[in-house]
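User: Batch of two.

Assistant: Item 1 of 2:
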Amino acid sequence: MTKLSSHITALFIVVALVWAFVPVFSVEEAEAKSLWNTCLVKITPKCALNIIWVVFGNGTLYESCCHDLVQEGKVCHDNLIKYIADRPSLIGRETQYLKKRDDLWSHCVSVSKTA
């Protein structure tokens, strides 16, 4: 009887946790869809991949992508990079990526002003 009671308690806890966290995951999914619909449509796929490679890898920036990045806007750029940097596989390196994001933005703004 005690074993059955502990199984029921465990089941209740699992259901409660799922019920509590499902809205969090759906908000994150909605946020991703919003970022996609409002931000990524403002930049070419080639430049989006280049910018991601520069921030999260060792890529070299195509100067032509600076114009796209500035057109996309700082809010979109910041939110998209932060969204990617918050992935569990990147935990612990967020500060590094956010600095690269800010350095890239500053560079592209200066390049766009001189063009």
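Item 2 of 2:
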Amino acid sequence: MAASMLRLPLRLSSRNMGIMTRNTGLKTSHIPRTTQSRTAVSTPSGAILPKPEKTPFGLIRMTLVVVPFLYVGNLISKNFAALLEEHDIFVPEDDDDDD
């Protein structure tokens, strides 16, 4: 039984050696050779679909999304920094650099 357990890794490594060797001969591929079609741009019959409608994403819309989240993130970080200072977990030192 011990001998069979020692032979198992040898069998597994010899099975994988075909993958790791540099055999430049012709190999049979298991990848099917089918024609790929993109159904996102064409119908099943082959007709090309019209361009999708674009919704304008202007500077105003982007600002309306970004500014509130920056403000909320600012409030969260400010309150968390105050909490850390209150519990003496992190207290920044005031360095007097009078050079």
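The radius of gyration is 32 Å.
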